[in-house]
Amino acid sequence: MTPSPLRLLLDTAALQHNWRTLAAMSGRAACGAAVKADGYGLGAREVATRLAEAGCRDFFVSNWREAEHLAPLGLQLSVLHGVRDEDMPAALAGFARPVLNTPEQVERWRVGGGRACDVMVDTGMNRLGLSVTDVEAGALDGLEIETLMSHLACAEEPVEMNRRQRDALAGLAGRTNARRMSLANSAGIALGPDYHFDLTRPGLALYGGVPRPDMGARLRQVVRPQAQVLQRRRVPAGDSLGYNATWRAPRDTEVAILNIGYADGYLRAFSDRGSIEWEGSTLPVIGRVSMDLIAVDASIAPGLREGDWVAIAFDLPGQSAASGLSQYELLTGLGARYDRLWS
Ligand SMILES: *Cc1c(COP(=O)(O)O)cnc(C)c1O
Fold this sequence. Notes:
Elements: E1 6-10, H1 12-25, E2 30-31, E3 33-34, H2 36-40, H3 44-54, E4 58-61, H4 64-70, E5 76-79, H5 88-92, E6 97-100, H6 103-112, E7 117-122, E8 130-131, H7 132-136, E9 145-149, H8 160-170, E10 180-182, H9 186-189, E11 199-200, E12 223-235, E13 240-241, E14 247-248, E15 253-258, E16 275-278, E17 281-286, E18 294-297, E19 309-312, H10 316-323, H11 327-332, E20 339-342
Parallel strand pairs: 1-20, 2-11, 3-4, 4-5, 5-6, 6-7, 7-8, 7-9, 9-10
Antiparallel strand pairs: 1-12, 12-15, 12-19, 13-14, 15-18, 16-17, 16-19, 17-18
Helix pairs in contact: 1-3
């Protein structure tokens, strides 16, 4: 197959380092991995295989399609969105556990004869999960539960809501048959031992995202997009460049045109905001990001030529600040056109 003119360099050692770091930060608790949304855009199978090799045992996906994709790996999978009627055949096949979220799902699982499951309890986020009141009233009595979990709404912020959510989950200890309890996502791990329970569930930080500045020094960048120069040109002073002529050359300007655009997840938010690296120089994106192309000011890189590969700046906290996109959006938006190359 023809090599793609776009590639993601994916760093196995950095991914495994990040998991080991989060596992160490999780103390006595086991450390799992959220690999939903195709492993946050990196490729769920490749990510899960490497994390399993590092010692990870608990993997979380969103739905049964995603679980089926990973089933051949033989890992312990949990499906965060629970079970619909149409999921029951897959759910009863036993290659993953549903995370039951509603009284209807609990009933469906009981009637269908399902065995071990996980359960999500809502402790204040008001997204998915049974209410604490329902659990206290016995909604889960008799159910074979592996993990009773909840999810933090604001783990990356120092707000009092974290403590309230933590206390609400802790209050259910012993109220069900659950073998384990779980609360913390990536940022929640940094909230300390009170938040670790028996199992943590990081996603973002595994992939090099930094949910809290104090975690930045300990995590390594995993994803490095690269694109190629399609054309180099000189834009005369006063000429415009790109769609809607939003950029105008203040002087004669050397420009390189690269084959990456918003169809590759490099969204228009990077117009006049993104940058690339080439042989130690940082070249700014100028003008509007197109579907398949961007332009950079190459004035300080006289040696940059048609066909050269360049690195798209993709340190997640920095590029999130530059673009206004979340680190999660930067990862999960990475499109299908990249060759994903694991080192
Ligand atoms: C996505 C998700 C996680 C992982 O969250 P990060 O912020 O990416 O670490 C953990 N638990 C649940 C329920 C999730 O949906």
